[in-house]
Amino acid sequence: MARKSLSQSDFIEAGTEYLRDHTLSELTMRVLGDLLGVDATACYRHFSGKAELLTAMLDTLLGQVLEAVPEVVTAPRELLEAQCVAMRRVMHDNPQLATAMVASEGQMPNALKMARRSIAALRSGGLDGDELIRSYQMIESYVMGATQFDLMEAPHNMEIRAARYGMFEDPAFVRAARSVRSVAAITEESFLAGLRILLDQCLGQSR
Amino acid sequence: MARKSLSQSDFIEAGTEYLRDHTLSELTMRVLGDLLGVDATACYRHFSGKAELLTAMLDTLLGQVLEAVPEVVTAPRELLEAQCVAMRRVMHDNPQLATAMVASEGQMPNALKMARRSIAALRSGGLDGDELIRSYQMIESYVMGATQFDLMEAPHNMEIRAARYGMFEDPAFVRAARSVRSVAAITEESFLAGLRILLDQCLGQSR
DNA sequence: ACCTGAACACCGTTCAAGT
DNA sequence: ACCTGAACACCGTTCAAGT
User: A203: which of A40, A125, A170, B182 fits an S-S bond (Cβ 3.0–4.6 Å)?
Assistant: First the structure.
């Protein structure tokens, strides 16, 4: 039998790819092994367990956000908004992983990088002390939370939301519920509107 | 052996009580059976499975929110804020259930009631059409999402957040990280500040 | 150094059998 | 009508054994 000599990134990539079309609970260690033509327990030679693999997959995702928003010299307001929008888009493209986002930031270097960038932007926007922390936390909780909430039950999330709208018995919602696409559009619009309202309030209007 | 003749609410209450001191993954059907002095499979005589039980537990939680905010005649802005704050408090008191909040609203009558109340308030605040939907969705995603995010990994969530702050290498965050209590306080302040900013923008300043 | 394969201690759930 | 208890098809993970 030929040696496989797999690396961490092989498992990360195979898992992330698999989650494009499958549920998180469908990604078992046995399936992951099959994907790489290897035994179910081979993963344990590279990660302490499933949790650590998941964390590595998540951090890789955050790396994509950092790449999507190069740290060029832009106004802090624009850098922040761009980073938040990129974060949401990456999560939107990987809903299964996004909704499993964990708080174990200790092992996620890219999460740390993103946070430091945001804080630097808020600082150069004039914030400091407790106001800085409140603003940072408000934006992080909004972007991560609202996006996770909107992606819940993906890929059927917007069908489910449309069905809910239909039960509200309100003419505006019932009309919107007829088109899943319009429900999805409204969801994105409301996220972006909310983000801008919060950023405006934290950093002052810039448009 | 005496007949137990349990009802749905017995399982809901026992499970919710158990989750006060235990993780969601620790609440297995076998444990639930032990709590009620009954076989592990007895639950299937009252619920189709664990998912349906969980949904029932969640809806019971939403019922507490409805009770906490009686539908007295108040200004729409105040009703909305009170309902959002009550929602967060109930989730805060039941973090394990709150972070498992599901999108299966079809079987959650109290979720429907809450939504209709919110929509009525927004309407009497002068909103209509797509603007009404955007405002509703913005507030729902913010309250549910940010709260779920802040409660992630409870009951150690604030210790984890404090540890993160310590790694930011920013003087303001490092100072705040010395007290878990202060991190928790800042989290609540930033949630409330964000909520008020969004409500102000949707319904106009009322204070 | 890395992978295998059997094994362990769990899950949620089904179903025939009890009362 | 409701509960029991064995059983099924899974999990993640461990560990001795291979190469």
Answer: A125
